[in-house]
Amino acid sequence: MPGNSLLSLYRARRVWLAAALGAVCLGLTAACGGSTTSAASAPVSGGVLTYVADQLPTCLDPAVSPYDVVALIDRNIVDSLVSQSDNGSIHPWLATKWTISPDGKTYTFYLRSGVKFQDGTPLTAEAVAASLAHVVAKSTGSEYASSLLGPYTGTTVVNSSTIEVHLSQPYQPLLQGLSTPYLGIQSPKALASDTEAQLCEHPVGSGPFSLVSWVQPTSVTLKRYAAYDWGPPTAVHTGPAYLSGLTFLFDTNDASRYGSLTSGQADVIADVPPLDVSTLKQTSGLGLLSQQQPGVPYMLALNTESGPLADERVREALMRSLNLTQLVNSIYFGQYQRAWSPLGPTTTDYDPSLADSWPYDPALANQLLNEAGWTGRNAAGYRTKDGKPLVVYWPEDNPRQDRVDLALGMQAEAKQVGIDIDYANLDQGAFFQTEASGKFDVFDTSWVRDDPSILNHFYNPDQTIELGGANVWDLNVPELTAWLNNATSSSSAAARQQDWDHIQSYLISNAIMIPVYVPTTLDGYQASVHGLSSASDGETEFYDAWIAK
Asked: Taking a C-beta distance cutoff of 8 angstroms, is the pair 186, 137 a contact?
C-alpha cells in the first residue's frame, strides 16, 4: 500500500500445538484443519458463497499487501509453485518437481504443462520469472512478499518449462514461502500491461476463481474459472471449483458481522466473537471451523534501544507484572490460548519448554524496578527516578479482537507495581506521526506464517522498517543474528531446531517481547455450507467448498 505506514500493517494482521501438543478444535461438525463436509454428502455444483471478513483490503496484488484478508482472497485467484500440507510437508503444484543444488543456492523447478492464466496466457518459465521479478521490483513496493524469497538474486529461464531460482546463500524457508499466496504466480500479460494501481485492483492468476469486481470498500466478487484443472494435491477434488462464485464482504464490527451469520445474510463469517462461540455451538443450523494459526502470536514488541525499556530489568518487570493467563481467559472466554513463546504452538520448531517459564510475579517486578533505580512514587502511585515518572508509551491505531480491553487490563495491572502504561488509541494521521518519530516504547503485532523464519522479519538487522521488515527499533544483537542466519541456512533439521530453541529462549529471557495470546481462526458457517477447509496457515480455503441445495 504505497504511502501507508508499514507498522500499521502489522496492527491489522491477525494471528491465530500440533496434534501432539493438543491443538484446539472447537467446531460443531468441522475438524481441526479439516473440512465441514459430511462423509455422507455428495458435492453439488453451483451457488455463490458469501463470506464476511473482518478486515478491509487496500491492495489485492499479493506481491504488495501483507494483509491476511488479501491472502484469503488471492488464494482463490493465484496458484503457487508448491503447496504445503497440514504437517508442514511441501508438495508439487504448478511445479511438478524440483531439485536443489549441493550448495543450496540454486532451486530448479520443472513446470506443469497445460496451465493457463485466467486471461488465456499459458504458464511458462518466462511467466514465473516475470512474476518473481515483479515481487522484488522496487516499483512494486512489496511490504512482505519479497522477504519470503530471502537472499534471492534472480531467476534463470532454462527452457520454456524449467527455471532456476538463485540465492546468494542457502535459505531453507524458500519452499514454504513459495507455497504462500503472497508469492502466487501472476499472469505476465497482466503484469506487463497494467500499472501497479491497476494490479492492486485486478490481479490475474491461474487459480480456481477469477476477479470480477472490487467495489471499494464494500465487496470483492469472484467467479469460477471453468477451465481450472490443476489444483494442489492437498485438495479433495480435481477440476473446477464447485461454487460458481465467491462474494467477500467486509465488516469490522463484531456484532454486526455475527448478526449477518445468524440472520442468514452471510454463509460464512470470519472471527466469531469469543463471547458468542458458546451460543453459536448451541444454535441449530450453524457450525464453527476453528484452528490455531502458526507464526508470531499476538505480542508486545518492546523498545530495547531507548526509553525506560532499554533497561532489561524494567522490561522484565513489565512482563512479570501482567497476569496474562487471567486476562486472556477472561476477555476471550477460553477461545484463545495464552502465549508463552515468540512462536505459536502450531508453528514448526515451536519450543514447548517455554510454557509457564515466566509466570505472573508482581513481587519480582517490584524487586527489579527497585534494582533499576525506580524507587520513588508520585501522587498517582507511579514509580519515579530522578523526579521523572516511569511511563511506557504504547500508541495504537487499529485495535481489533477486543485488544482495547486487553490493553486496559494490562494497564491496570502494570499500575500495581508502579508502571504507567500510556495507551493511546490514535487516529491514523496522529499514529503515523508518532511512528515516524520513533518515540514510543511498545507496539503490538502478530503475524501468520507456518515457518519459524518469520522471526527473521522482526529481529534480523537486515529486516528494518526501511528495508521492508519489522525490526522496528533496529535491534542488532550479534549472537541473536547468528542464530537467525544459521537457522535459515543449515541443511540439518536438528541444528535448525537447536537454533530456533536458542532464539525463542533468548527473546523471552531478555524480555525483548511479551507473547500475549494465540488467536484462533473462528469461522462461523451455515449448515448448508460444506467442504470449507483450513490451510496450514489457518486461513480458510474455498476450492473444495459447496452449498447444499
From this structure: no
